[in-house]
């Protein structure tokens, strides 16, 4: 399924990873259907229970049992290794080869937990062909991959550490938080005294995430998208009312990473 061989479209190889080692969250309770088109539920999106399970499995990522405190404890692309199990002189087209990946930290110590994001492929530069394999996380610092051998001739194996499990945790943490990464500008316009026009630019953002709001207190004007239920918050303009919002544009970006986190990304 995921081991598709596409000689002319090798850039489109599909990578699917399924983890077998942790529990999946229960499906959210669908919002009861009513006559109100502003509410979209999982049921309305047409996702079956089986599809929901499949998506959860595909998205799930095991969490290390402890937080690391030093950079050197993160997975090292230099010291991590892989080997081909039972390497033979030759194989038949259609056979699999099995690859074992061993993750190590920057001190060359074996990792004891999983969650690293590895990609593994079989490729031929001559044929401009490649095929990715499913990486199975054993949650103990080792991973296995089955790679299909779809063509005749030579093939090489490449394993790439996309992100260490530590970086995956950081990505997960910020994905689930309402930390504002992007800000927008909200443009308010209205009439002032003596036929003047007042224009004010304030900061806006989406209201979302666990904390609910990117600004505390009664900070903001709220604008709700009645189709999706999404709430847009703009700082309250000084001299104009909330309904005078006319447009918005992209604003500043904010980097949430602390120093250790930044270093983990660059390691
Ligand atoms: C939805 O609309 C139908 C017909 O207009 C009505 O019979 C039904 O009671 C409504 N349901 C709800 C939950 O409002
Ligand atoms: C539909 O939903 C909107 C937003 O949640 C709410 O203001 C409105 O009263 C609802 N209308 C009905 C008929 O339930
Ligand atoms: C190769 O590996 C895939 C994925 O693990 C498996 O579904 C398939 O049966 C294997 N094929 C052979 C010939 O072993
Ligand atoms: C990791 O788990 C796999 C699968 O359970 C097992 O075969 C392997 O021996 C384990 N490796 C280590 C280093 O514990
Ligand atoms: C709001 O109005 C006051 C009084 O007219 C003016 O001094 C102030 O600059 C205005 N503030 C903004 C943000 O336009």
Automatic annotation (TrEMBL):
Keyword Hydrolase: no
Secretion signal, residue range per the UniProt entry: 1-23
Keyword Metal-binding among record annotations: no
Keywords, alphabetical: Signal
One Pfam family cited in the UniProt record for this chain: Neurexophilin
Gene3D superfamilies assigned to the protein according to its UniProt record, in alphabetical order: Immunoglobulins
Alphabetized InterPro entries for the sequence: Ig-like_fold, Ig_E-set, NXPH/NXPE
A biological-process GO annotation: nervous system development
Name used for this protein in its record: Uncharacterized protein
Source organism of this protein record: Sinocyclocheilus grahami
């Amino acid at each position: 399924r995921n081991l598709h061989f596409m000689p002319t479209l090798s850039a489109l190889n599909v990578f699917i990873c399924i983890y077998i080692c942790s529990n999946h969250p229960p499906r959210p309770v669908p919002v009861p259907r009513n006559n109100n088109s502003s509410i979209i539920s999982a049921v309305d999106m047409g996702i079956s229970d089986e599809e929901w399970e499949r998506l959860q499995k595909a998205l799930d990522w095991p969490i290390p049992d402890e937080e690391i405190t030093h950079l050197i404890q993160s997975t090292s692309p230099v010291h991590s290794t892989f080997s081909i199990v039972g390497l033979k002189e030759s194989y038949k087209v259609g056979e699999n080869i099995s690859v074992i990946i061993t993750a190590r930290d920057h001190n060359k110590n074996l990792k004891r937990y999983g969650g690293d994001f590895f990609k593994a492929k079989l490729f031929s530069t001559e044929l401009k062909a490649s095929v990715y394999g499913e990486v199975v996380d054993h949650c103990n610092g080792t991973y296995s991959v089955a790679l299909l051998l779809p063509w005749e001739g030579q093939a090489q194996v490449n394993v790439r550490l996309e992100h260490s499990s530590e970086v995956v945790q950081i990505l997960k943490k910020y994905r689930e938080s309402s930390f504002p990464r992007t800000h927008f500008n909200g443009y308010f316009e209205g009439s002032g005294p003596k036929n003047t026009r007042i224009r004010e630019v304030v900061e806006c953002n989406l209201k979302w995430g666990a904390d609910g709001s990117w600004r505390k207190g009664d900070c903001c004007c709220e604008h709700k998208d009645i189709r999706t239920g999404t709430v847009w918050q703009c700082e309250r303009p000084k001299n104009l009312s909330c309904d005078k919002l006319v447009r918005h544009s992209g604003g500043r970006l904010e980097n949430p990473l602390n120093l250790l986190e930044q270093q983990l990304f660059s390691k």
